[in-house]
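Tokens help. Our protein:
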Amino acid sequence: MVKDTKRCACTVLVPHRYHVCYFRIPLDLRGPIPILYFMVKYWNPARIKRIRERPERKEQRIYDEAKKERKRLLRGMPVGRDPERLLDVLGLPLRRKMLGRLQKSGAMSVSKLAEPFGLTLSAALKHVRYLEWSGIVKTKKQGRTRICSYNPGALPELARFLESRYFNHK
């Protein structure tokens, strides 16, 4: 037992990147223990609660980000049949092939529609959304699947627009 507490010291080993440092820390046994200042993590009820809630917070953050992205995508793209939007959407060969497949086979799910093209579900859903925003395709949700169907009234309207705009030489 040490009689003079003011002169006591503790040697602390602190690992560094390339070497180990030793520090002599004077101990005042009446105050807080200085070794605790070097401890980075300690378990307490608040930390345990935060760690248990971490997966839930991550899921909520992912959901919120997806919701923001959906709102961002929907902004500026109202659903409807604008002839210029129809031409823009049909400018991509993949979307024209998807539309042809819907015309031949009838209504089908997004995953079945994307199967022959080797697309991921999220990429196929993006293309289907563009087709839906242009008014060529209609979708509805049945349980967990989204069913796409061809809207036959959209393309004749585009044909009338093109005929009146470019081929009507009066």
